[in-house]
């Protein structure tokens, strides 16, 4: 496991990291093409140990992913300023995950549907209407396979 400079802040239990991924709503996906980094925020769902995102079929992120599928990602929850009488004593509370992995465009129809259904369920809840065949066909579903990740908590 990667060791942090401040080990007392490092989350040790896989369940703590999974909790962050389950509760987070926005994932910052960092990509790299040659020596150019690109970071893009996306909604996501953590499902069956993987991360699913949906997006269009074109654009910068596809241009980066075609050159290099390797990614770094970050998710933060429970973020809030922690006031103190002295300005230099203020702190910031958070729980966060940073991980590494590979992103691919999901091609298999059953997995596309499963990923999209998980995303819709995550944000719209169980009563959400089913996606139409047209919307399903239009969506590009990305899967991020996590290779490693660390969790950190501050002021918790
Ligand atoms: C909280 C949040 C959630 C989002 N969720 C989703 C999602 O689930 N699915 C989805 O497809 N998109 C989502 N977006 C939009 C996403 O960040 C991108 O704008 C979008 O996916 C297009 O990315 P692209 O690489 O194709 O950019 P392109 O349309 O190809 O544009 C590339 C250019 O625009 C700039 N750019 C791209 N995105 C942004 C941005 N967000 N802010 C400022 N400049 C930008 C880049 O720097 C680059 O110069 C979300 C944005 C936010 C802020």
Secondary structure blueprint with pairings:
Elements lengths: L9 E2 L2 H10 L2 E8 L2 E8 L1 E3 L2 E6 L4 H8 L2 E13 L8 E15 L3 H16 L8 H6 L1 E15 L2
Antiparallel strand pairs: 1-8, 2-3, 2-6, 4-5, 5-8, 6-7, 7-8
Characterization of the model:
This protein is an alpha+beta fold. Helix content is 26%, strand content 45%. It is built from four helices and eight strands, in the order E-H-E-E-E-E-H-E-E-H-H-E. Strands 1, 2, 3, 4, 5, 6, 7 and 8 form an eight-stranded antiparallel sheet that branches. It is globular. The mean pLDDT is 95. The structure holds flavin-adenine dinucleotide. Flavin-adenine dinucleotide binds next to strand 3, strand 5 and helix 2.
Task: Summarize the structure in short.
The chain is α+β, with helices and mostly antiparallel strands. The chain is built from four helices and eight strands.
Helix content: 25-40%
User: Would you list the SSEs in sequence order as H and E?
Assistant: EHEEEEHEEHHE
| Percent strand | 35-45%
Gyration radius from CA atoms, angstroms: 17 Å
How far the N terminus sits from the C terminus, by CA atoms, comes to: 22 Å
- CATH topology call: Pnp Oxidase, Chain A
CATH-level-4 superfamily name: Electron Transport, Fmn-binding Protein, Chain A
- Mean pLDDT rating: 95
Sheet with most strands: 8 strands, antiparallel
CATH architecture: Roll
Oligomer: single chain
Shape: globular
- Unreliable segments of 5+ consecutive residues: none
Number of helices: 4
Structural class: alpha+beta
The set of bound ligands, ions and cofactors reads: flavin-adenine dinucleotide
